User: Fold this.
Amino acid sequence: MADHATLIDELRQAEDRLQAAQLAGDVEELDRLLHEQLVFTGPPDGLCHPGAKELDLHNHRSRTQIMTKVAQEDLTVLVAGDTGVTCFLGTLEGTFAGTPFAGRMAYTRTWTHTDEHGWRVLAAHSSPA
Assistant:
């Protein structure tokens, strides 16, 4: 495994790649960055949703969700062993099922690192900021 500073840099780059893939609707990149067991907690119901990877990929592939803006204001990156956490604060805009949305959001993402896959999101939580 790489040294701690390298892992932090790689995690920051993975977060940047994730945001770019969301904005571009890049399903192949999202597939690489999202863990198969991804769970998501957040709006609209605040519940924990297993199987979030397939739903997220479907929403981007079908263009149900289209991001037009992902503007990061702040990012905190932490690494402990093969686990990482990113705390994103920023503005998101786009459409979901044809309905426009916009808002300032906070995301906490838990990442896991393997030599085979690099950094992948295992869990994510979002809330309005």
Observations:
- The helical segments are 4-24, 27-33, 52-61.
- The chain has one domain: 4-128.
- The mean pLDDT is 96.
- The radius of gyration is 14 Å.
